[in-house]
Here is the input.
Amino acid sequence: MPELPEVETVRRGLQPVMEGARIMRVETRRPDLRFPFPERFAERLEGRRIVSLGRRAKYLTTHVEDGPVLICHLGMSGSFRVETDDTADAPGDFHHARSKSATHDHVVFHLAAATGDAARIVFNDPRRFGFMLFAEGHASEHPMLAGLGVEPTGNELDGKLLAELFRGRRTPLKAALLDQRLIAGLGNIYVSEALWRAGLSPTRAAGTIAEGGKKGIEACERLATAIRSVIADAIEAGGSSLRDYVHADGSLGYFQHAFSVYDREGEACRKPGCKGHVERIVQSGRSTFHCAACQR
Here is the structure.
């Protein structure tokens, strides 16, 4: 499933085309995706101007004038494609190309820019685990978004906050980082990478980094810095391009070439001076990659 950096890359690819444009027509080529489309889905969007395109965790939010907020999730295989009369691009960089088969084109937004240029935004989703829903009023109050924790992209996520979030928690550190109620948008790949950068074991109890006086403070600060930096680096690289994820312009992401531990089982640890190797363990049914020698 695309993680936060991939979703942010898609948002940035769609933003220049969508913001300020007017939705002239909406095609829904089936009655549902993961969930049924909201009642009067096309009717409530058609004729309205797109004010802004946002992101909350792994959700895209489209704000239209005098209308509901459209909340979109890509699911396992969803992607957007930008089409004009001359080009067809999909924002996102993936190791394996996303589907471009028209068979899986389920929603088409026909747009008219202020300049008069026309474009089509096509949502393609072979597995149909993605969805589009409406939020009335503030998007943050929608049930899908209301319980989400802090974003991992800004200075709000610091060592002090991590200590408060994890204090007293016995759950493994990796599981705590994946808890969307604590930190929103972190997924399996980037948690593994951040823990390696911070030199912290994914199996230790989360509460232990909130204890120990000066050492605990340093561990929390180190982890907060690692989370922010790995997300920023991934966004800059255009995502990880795992399986069939692609950008809105059709290009592939390349952060996977900078993975230090993820999917590198058996390889030498890349940390200078470390003689350990990357190991793979399973936590809650998901693969975790780490170096036991330098992650404590």
